[in-house]
Amino acid sequence: MPTPLLATPFSKLRLLDYSPPEYFTPETHLVFHIVDRTRVEVNVALFVQRNGTSMPSASFVLNCHESVQIANVFINGEELDPDQYRKEKDMLTILQSFPADFRIKIDCVLNPEANKSGKGLYVSGGNLVTQCEPHGFQWIAPSIDRPDNMGVFTTTLIADKNRFPILLSNGNSTEEQELPGNKYSVTFHDPFPKPSYLFALSAGDFDSMEDVFTTMSGKEVRLKIFTEKGEINQCRHAMESLKKSMKWDEERFCLECDLNEFKIVVCHDFNSGAMENKGLNIFNSSCAYADPKTATDSDFENVERVIAHEYFHNWTGDRVTCRDWFQLTLKEGLTVFRDQEFTCDTHSRALKRIDDAHIIKVAQFSEDGGPNAHPIRPQEVETIDNFYTTTVYDKGAEVIRMIFTMIGKDVFCKGLNLYLSRHDGQAVTTDEFVDAMQEVSGLDLTQFRNTWYSQKGTPTVHVQEEYDADLKTYKLHIEQKPAHEGQKPFHFPFMMGLLSHDGKEIPIQNNLLQIREPKHTFTFTDIPLKPTLSALRNFSAPVRLKLEQSSEELRRLMMHDSDLYNRYDAAQRYGKILLHLLIADTSSLNTDNLDAYGAMLDSVDTDPDFAARIVLLPSLREIVQEMDVYDYDSAYNAREFLMRAIAEKYEDRLVALYEKYHSIDPYKLDPKDIAARRIKNVCLAYLSKITGKHTNLLMKQFHDATNMTDQENAFRLLCNEKGPERDEAIASFYDQWKHDKLVFCKWVEAQSVSKRMDIIERMEEMEKLPEFDTRNPNNIRSLSACFAAINKVHFHDISGDGYVFVADHVIDIDSFNPQMAGGLVKRFDEYKKMDCVRQELMKKELLRIEKKTKTTNVREIVGNIVGE
Q1: pLDDT at position 56
Q2: Residue 10 has what pLDDT?
Q3: Burial class of 337 by CB neighbour count within 10 A (0 to 12, 13 to 18, 19+)
Q4: Which residues pair with 828 in a beta bridge?
Q5: Which of 186, 201, 567, 617 is the most buried if burial means most Cβ atoms within 10 Å?
C-alpha cells in the first residue's frame, strides 16, 4: 500500500495481528429511557467473562464513543468513584483488576438529535433509528464492540405513549407494561447470540403493515413493516418480496425463519441500502418503497433484491457471523451470491448473469485496478468503513460462484448446510466456509483460497487458438497473468464451447476447464473445421479475457451462441472495436459494420428483454479501461457518434419497434411488460441522438407516461436536450414530484448526470432548493456522488471545476458524516490514469481535502490515491 502523504498518519489494523478478546459479554441487558429526541438515558448491564486463554489485567477497557456521556459505573452492584474509571475519546477504562466473572452496569446519556453521522442512535423523520455496523453500538453504550463477542440481548424501551407510540428492538416482544405519567415499556428478548453490530432499536409514530408467513414446519411468523406517516402503501411490494424470499430460502436451502416476529423499519436517512439486524431490519426508503407512479421497474427489482439480501443474512451473517471485519466478505459476498441466485430462480438466470457481470466489469475491475485495490479479505485497514466495496461484496460473490460452478448446485447446498450447522452461533473466518465446501465436494480448494481471498487485482487471461485441419484437432492455449508481480497463479473455472460455421454447438467432452497453472493447453479432437470459440461462458471467473476474434466470429457469437451471456459479451467486444477505431479516426466508420446492430434489432421480438441489453454500446468506463491514459472526452464523442450512426441508419426500424412496444395502459409488473418498456426506452435513447428530430416524441412520452419507468426515462433524455423542452420538462417534473423525497432525488440525479455545459451552476442551484437536505444521504448520492461516479466527462472537465465541486462536498460532508465522505472521495481514484494536466488539478484538490479533513475515512483514501 502506498505511503500516505499525511502529516499525522493513522495506525493500521492488520489481519495478522488478530487476537481473541480478553473478555466476552454473553449477556447484555439494556434499558432505554426515551425522554425525547434530544435525550435518551441508557442503562447497560453486562455479564462479563474472562476469556479462558487470557491473563488477568490491571484494567478493563470498553469501546465507548466520545459522544456518550457517562453518568455512573457499578461493578457487582457497587458504584465506582469517578477516579476509578477514565473516559477517553473512544474508550472507557475501568482502573482495577477483576475476577474471572463479574457484572458491570453503566448509566449513560445520548443526544440522538445532535448525531448526524448515520451511526449509533439518531433521528430520521422525527423517529429514532439505529445503525451499528461496523462500530456503531459504541455510539449507544459502552461495550466490547467487535463481531467475535457474541451474546444474548434483552432490551427494554420506556417512552411516552403519545410521542413514541411504537417501540421496537431485536427479537421477540416478551412483555409490555403501563407506567405512571402516560409512559409505557416494551421488553424484547433475542434468544440467539449475536455481536453488538446486529443490535437495533426504533421508536416513534409509525404507520405499519402486517402479514403472516407460515414456515415449512408450520410455525407462523408475524411480519411487520413500519414507515413514516402516510407512506406505508409504498411497501406492499416489499412485503410480498419478504414472503417470496422466505419461501425461496426454505425451498432452495431448507433454511427456515427462526423467530416469531420479523420486523422492518423504513427511514429516509440511512447511509447504505439496508441493515440486517437480527429480527429488526432497518431500511433506506430507496430500497423499500415501490409504487408504479413513483418507482421504476429497476426500483421494483432493487427492492425485491435488497429485501431478499437482508432476510438471507438471518442465516449467513446473523446466525453465523464473521470473526473480525477482515472477514466481511464471509457474510456479504456469500449473501450477495444468495440474493443473485434468488433472482436467477425467480426471474431470468441469463439476464441476471449479464447484469451482475456488468457490475464487475464496470465498477469492480476499475476498483481492482486503482489505488484502493484490496483482496476480498483485506490484510490491513485504517477504518473498516472503507471496505464496504464492490470488491468485498460483488467480487466476493463471484468467488463464491466459482466454487458453486466447480462443485455443482446440489453439492454446494450440502456444503452451505454443513457450514451453517457446524458453526451456528459462532463468529468464524472465510477458511471455515471453504473447509465445508472442500469437505463435501472432495475438490482441493487450497490454491483457490490462497489466491482469491488474499491477492488483490484482476488476473488477465490470454487465450490463443491453434487448429490443425489435417489432424482435425483444435488446441486452446490459456495463459493467466496475475495483476501484480510475485502473485501466485489462481485456480478458477473456465467454461467454454465451440460453434460451427453455421452457429451450431459442436459436441465436446469437457466444457468446464480447471485452470490452476500459469499456462495450460487443452486439445479437442474430431473437429472437422476451425470452430468459433465461445470463451469464459456465463462469465465463469472474474478475469480480464484477452482473445482476438474476427468481426465475423463475433457476429456469429452474437447471433447464435447458446450462452446468452457470451452473446451479450460478443456484442460488447464488437462495439469496443468500432469505438476504438472511431477514437483514432472518426472517418474510419464503415457503415456496413453496423449491419450487426440491424440484425440484433431484427431479432428483438424473440426476447425483447435480452435485446434491450445486447444492442447497448459499452459504457464510458469500459471503453477507457482499455486506454493507457484515460480520455473520457474522446470516448464520449466516439460513443455519441456511433449511437447516432446506428440511429440514423436504422431510424425507421427503431421507430417501428418503439411504436410496437409503447403502451399507455395501466402499469403491470410482469416480465412481458417490463421487457416491452425496456426495449422501447432503449429505442428512444437511440432516436434521441438524431439531433432535434425526435424531441417531440420525448416530450409526448414524458407527459403521457402512466408509470415512473417511462416518465423518468424520457426526462433523463430531455435533460440532455438543448432547446426549451429541457427547461419545460425540468420545471414540470419538479412541480409534480418535489414533495416526494425519492422522486425528488431522481429529478436531481437526472440533471447531475446530464451533459449540459452549465452543470456545476445547475447543481449549485439545486442544492439551494428547500426540498434539498444537504445532510440527507440520498440527496448527497443523487447530487455530488452521482455526478462524480457517472458524469465522467464533466467531472474530469479540463477546467478542474468538477474536481473543486466534489472536493468542497467531501470537506463539508466529512464534518458530520465521514462514512459518506469516504465513499465520495473515492471518485478521485482515477487520478493516476488521467493526463498530466488533470492529474495536477486533481492532486491540488486531494491535498486540499487532506488539509481540511480529520477523519480516517477520508484521509486513508486520499493517502492511497496520492501516495508514492
Answers
A1: 76
A2: 52
A3: buried
A4: none
A5: 201
CATH of the domain at 750: 1.25.50.10
Q: What is the pLDDT of residue 8?
A: 38
pLDDT at 759: 98
- CB 31, CB 14: distance < 8 Å: no
Residues in the chain: 868
Statement: the pTM of the whole predicted model exceeds 0.85: yes
| Span 125-141, pLDDT tens digits | 999 999 999 999 999 99
C-alpha cell at 477: 492455449
Q: Which of 187, 121, 193, 185 is nearest to 153 (CA)?
A: 193
Q: Is residue 94 part of a domain?
A: no
Q: Is 466 a catalytic residue?
A: no
Phi, psi of 446 (to 5 degrees): -60, -50
Tell me which of 228, 276, 304, 310 is the catalytic residue: 310
Give CA–CA dist 684/670, Å, rounded.
21
Q: Rounded to whole angstroms, how far apart are CA atoms 252 and 255?
A: 8
CB distance 358 to 833 below 8 Å: no
Q: What is the pLDDT of residue 9?
A: 43
Cα distance between residue 430 and residue 412, in whole Å:
15
Give the residues of the chain that fall short of pLDDT 70: 1-10, 868
> Structural domain of residue 507, as residue ranges?
460-564
Q: Find cell 417501540 and name the residue.
A: 167
Contact 210, 223 (CB under 8 A): yes
CA distance 243 to 247: 6
Let me know whether 838 and 782 are in one domain: yes
- Look up cell 439496508; give the residue: 274
